[in-house]
Specification:
The protein is mainly α. Strands 1-2 form a two-stranded antiparallel ribbon. Helix 1 crosses helix 3, helix 4 crosses helix 10 and helix 10 runs parallel beside helix 12. The radius of gyration is 21 Å and the shape is globular. The relative contact order is 0.16. Keywords: Acyltransferase, Membrane, Transferase, Transmembrane, Transmembrane helix. This is Acyltransferase.
Length: 378
Amino acid sequence: MSVMVDRPTQQLRTVRVHRPPRRPERPRLYAIDGLRLVAALMVAVHHYAGSWRVDQPGNAVWGRPVSEAMPTVFHVAAYGWIGVEIFFVISGFVICMSCWGRTPRQFFVSRVIRLYPAYWFGIVFTTVFVVVMPGVWHRLKVRDILLNLTMLQSGSGVDSVDGVYWTLWSELRFYLLFMAVVATGLTYRKVVIFACVWGAAAMLAPVADFRLLTLAANPDGAWFFIAGLALYLMHRFGQDLLLWGILAMAWLMGQRELGIRIDDFEHVSGWRGCTALFTVFLLAMVAIALGATDRIRWRWLVTAGSLTYPLYLIHYVAGTTLINRLDGTMDPRLLVASVIAGFLVLSLLVHRFVERPLAGLLKQGLDTSFARLRNAQT
């Protein structure tokens, strides 16, 4: 029997379990930053050259099926939508890692300053694009655009300024659920219990036709986040049969969700190919979690990782509008590559001149507000 030091947020206690001690802290996981960029590029290429929408005759982006314009690119890009599920797994891993040892207040502040600055820019940027270059996308009513600034439009039944923002609704529900664990102090045991309870709720709520629980449990995305949680526990405490079991369950449930999404939304890719990609990605994450990529310390990957969120937020509506305007001026493959390159440059500018300054101001303001709340007598 060995001793594992399990560090909750609020106190230190010793738990005796049949497993090895917690591993020492490792340096920054640069490989995850690289995977983030790969996932973002997969999604962007899919939206431009591999989605069902752009493969329809007379579509508003290309005006013709993209599979006729560049068939090879289309057949590869058709699988790029799985980058969203990759984001969800990475989010489960990174959120658990960044929240360890933090208070709920710190967790809340970190999420606000991470999500909102680039998101607000994305809303303004996309709205201006739709107004200046109409014809591809319909502009929302002003009141709906203003509601979008809250990031809660999906919960209010209002369309998003950009369709890709639907993933943020899944992220927010994950944060809300995980906040309950953060509030009690993160430990190995609590995260495992949380993952199991959440997984059970995600399975049972739709069958029971319990709409509120289904909304909270987010069965469409739950198992991808749960996979990320299990992978981080492997990284922090080492592998064991229980964590492998959770990860295997996440893979089994995840491959089913991939199939459902293909049937209901994507239509252009096969289940076998998507499942193979998902499996390869999970194996790559296992390698990261177990330390196989610790030697990768290329600092440019940090910059690459910082581009992914702005790129995801601004690429879709504006990018497809640009393609519509520029189609015919160059080879379609070169056009897609040029648009993506342009948005990567813009994403770097957004990160440096929007995200960083606004995040600093928001953090300072929120820290001051919480200090005042804590010290208030009445």
